[in-house]
Every structure is written in structure tokens, then in C-alpha cells.
Amino acid sequence: MFNYIVYRVFEYFNKKENATAMSKTINFLALFQGTLIVPVFMSINLFTKIDPQIFGENTRIKYYIGIPLAAVLIIVNTIFFKRKLKGEQLKVLEDKYHKERYILPTWIIFATPIIFVFILPIIYGVLNGTISFPFLEK
Fold first, then answer.
1. What percent of the chain shows pLDDT beyond 70?
2. pTM, rounded to two decimals
């Protein structure tokens, strides 16, 4: 899945500006993977009911976790995907994933982190009962 996303994002950025396409692709992939954690935690919480205060009472704990996580994701993605976006391995990705008409439009790939962080938590809150809309109640 990540190879497909990397190729499609790289293809988009490479058409716009060739010089920074690789770094923009790796940064977007780190953002995508970081936001993918939100639906994973929500899925786990559906079955186990994790207490949000498990990491302590500190409200800034998300920054203590998020910033190192972003750095780790960028480093790991650079190691794994930088070589895939060069030379022969890029040709392999192009042969495997390039099509004239893609099933999934590029804008959906770019909108996915927004959906993971903003839309899915609202839907989860409504289904879980933690968010209610007073104007819908009778």
C-alpha cells in the first residue's frame, strides 16, 4: 500500500517540481503514517476502552510523543523509500503502478490525512456517544 502511495505522490510532485519531489513525497508519507495512528487507536479503543489518561495527567504528552514520532517516521521513510524513488527501482514502481486512468484520484490520497484526523474522530465520537448534537435530540 505504501509503495503505491509513494509512487502516486512522487509522480504528482515530480510533474510540478522535480528538484524537491523526493523530499516532499517522504514528508507526505510521514504525515500520512502519523495520521494513520488516529484510526488505529480508535479501532483498538472500540474493543479495549483505553483510558486517555494512561500516559499521565500532562496535557502536552501528545507533543512529547508526536514530535519524536514525526522525526522517526521521516528518518525511516528516507531510509526505505529514497532508494525506491531513484533509477531502476523507480522504473519498477512505474511499471507496477502507472496507469493512464487511476481508480483512486490523487486528491483523495492528499485528503486522507484530513479525513483521519478530523472526520473519523467526529464519526467515532457520535457512534461512541461521547459527542452529541443537541439540535438532533427531541
1. 84
2. 0.77
